[in-house]
Amino acid sequence: MKHRRIAVLAESHRPAYVVWELTLRCDHACTHCGSRAAVPRDDELSPAEALEVVDQLAALGAREVVLIGGEAYLHPGFLEIIEALARAGILPTMTTGGRGITPQLATAMAAAGMARTSVSIDGLEATHDRMRASKGSFAQATAALGYLREAGIQTSSNINLNRLNQGDLEPLYEHLREQGVASWQVQLTAPLGRAADRPDLVLQPWDLLDLVPRIAALKERGFAEGVLLMPGNNLGYYGPEEGTLRSPYPEGGDRFTGCPAGRFVMGIESDGAIKGCPSLQTRYYAGATVRQRPLADTWRDDPKLVALRARTADDLWGFCRECPFAEACRGGCTFTAHSILGRPGNNPYCHYRARAMAAQGRRERLVPVERAPGTPFDHGRFELVEEALDAPDPGRTLDVRRRVAKRSRSLPLLAG
Which DSSP category does 260 fall into? Predict the structure, then answer.
């Protein structure tokens, strides 16, 4: 019976949304980079091999491919790959730090068929430049938005949210609105890669008590002002704002329905390794490479991809196993949970969980106990320490702690 279920799952899912790391070569060295991008991987796919992958993605029914890096435009076949995706009827999009986007490159990208580009901006100027370890990066990213828009490419932006930039949310929204972005993705910085080396950077679970209502309020502003704010898959989960947070429409009502990795999402590393999500830890989740097996075969029956789509609530542990939303949520974002506790299935970055703890006057603290080894998409390990909600925390201001305490008393526990 289990084998039949796996076969049905493989047939009922396709990689509609693919995130393709063309190269790990990068013109930034960001302090929070999960892939530790800087120099290329050994034996990255050549332009000819990449074009063969495009054909295989088309045969699998991919609808959108997001080109990433490192910096995707540093791959020698960048423009050819965009053209091939467009010819195959696949929407070519991109996520970039924007440092090397010039008016000429933006025009060439548009001519090749690039439909939409998201420029990563992780705070206001001082914060962004600090996170990107590059003075002038904020100005370059902002200029890139203008160059892309002038070339006819739809622009959006994204932020990795953490303790360094959490105070910049509202003014950054205003800056991005002024740049004419169509959408803004907000996700949490998981302790992957270089971020794993900076435990002071990552959020504590109770930070969500303050952040999620603020993000939901910005989303409502966005509906009125023409900016669609959408959460990453590691943000939210079943608090009172979930219906607003998750839905692309003002009427709301959507809910998180489990990690999409290996179900509707595929990640491709620059050496051709296939994962169920681009951010999944390579060591544990990368299946066969495109040089080893046809893409369709890996998607269908590689054990590491099959295991992702076959997970159930029975695979959960800790708080998540007893959660009333266990069947629907299945522990939230896989790579985030794994990056914190060393395995998936118990995710402390959960708004419902933080609220449930706060209702009892308690909270969970992440305490680092094991360092990351220093490879792309690696992680260390944290332990969870339960403590009083109002325990001292030198990383937060008194004003923020008061807002958290007030919200934990005044809002209903379950999602509305």
Answer: -
**Quick count: other Cβ atoms within 10 Å of Cβ 212?**
23
Strand-strand pairing, 183-188 and 228-231 = parallel
Digit-by-digit pLDDT tens for the chain (416 residues) are 333 333 334 456 899 999 999 999 999 999 999 999 999 999 999 999 999 999 999 999 999 999 999 999 999 999 999 999 999 999 999 999 999 999 999 999 999 999 999 999 999 999 999 999 999 999 999 999 999 999 999 999 999 999 999 999 999 999 999 999 999 999 999 999 999 999 999 999 999 999 999 999 999 999 999 999 999 999 999 999 999 999 999 998 899 999 999 999 999 999 999 999 999 999 999 999 999 999 999 999 999 999 999 999 999 999 999 999 999 999 999 999 999 999 999 999 999 999 999 999 999 999 999 999 999 999 999 999 999 999 998 665 434 444 444 444 443 444 43
Residue 187 CA to residue 232 CA, distance in Å, equals: 4
Dist. CA 392–CA 216, nearest whole Å: 27
335 with 279: CB under 8 angstroms? yes
Neighbour-count burial for 278-292, b at 16+ CB within 10 Å, e otherwise: bbbbbebbbbbbbee
Q: How many residues does the chain have?
A: 416
72 touches 302 (CB < 8 A): no
Strand partners, 289: 273
List CB contacts of 120: < 8 A, sequence separation 6 or more: 95, 96, 97, 98, 141, 157, 158, 159, 160
**How far apart are alpha carbons 228 and 244 in whole angstroms?**
11
Q: Give the tokens for residue 176.
A: 């991005």
Query: Which 3 state secondary structure label does DSSP give 208?
Result: helix
Q: 346 and 313 in contact (C-beta within 8 Å)?
A: no
Helix (H), strand (E), coil (C) string for 204-237: CHHHHHHHHHHHHHHHHHHHHHCCEEEECCCCCC
The answer to whether 56 touches 62, Cβ cutoff 8 Å, is no
Q: What is the dihedral of CA 243, 246, 250, 253, to 10 degrees?
A: -30
